[in-house]
Amino acid sequence: MSLMAQVRWKLADLLERYGITAYGVAKASEIRRVNTVYRIAKRGEEPIRVDLPTLAALLSGLRALTGEDIQLTDILEYHPDANEEDTEEMSVPSSDLEAQRTVATALERLQDLDFTAKQLAMLINQLQSEVK
User: Fold this and answer.
1) What is the extent of the structural domain holding 57?
2) How far does Cα 125 stand from its chain's mean position?
3) What is the mean pLDDT of the chain?
4) Count of domains in the chain?
5) Per-residue model confidence (pLDDT) at position 83
6) How sure is the predictor about 37, in pLDDT bands with cuts at 50, 70 and 90?
7) What is the pTM of this model?
8) Where would you tag: which of 5, 26, 80, 95 has the fewest CB atoms within 10 A of its CB?
9) Which residues are bridge partners to 78 per DSSP?
């Protein structure tokens, strides 16, 4: 049995809790590819990649529908030592401190991705202006 870090979707649970449909989220999020939201919301078939604009739109739509301050940690869950053979089971942090560390680590990684995306966008803009 090998252990590896994993990020898992919790969107299906959130939709159930609020009685919201994937279609409703897609419309409120203004995500044109409705199937993307359906895939994210379907347990066991969630995508392993999603772009940051889609993630931001998803959060905005969920906030609009629920009236709550929905955060990334409400739809994504980080497991630093997940069992590779048992990806369907979600472990519950054994303490508040462990939960805080898990959230902090996930947010740091997401911020790194956001920073990298911004750097790439700046580089693309710079290259485009040089080509003109």
Assistant:
1) 3-83+93-131
2) 26
3) 80
4) 1
5) 62
6) very high
7) 0.59
8) 95
9) 7
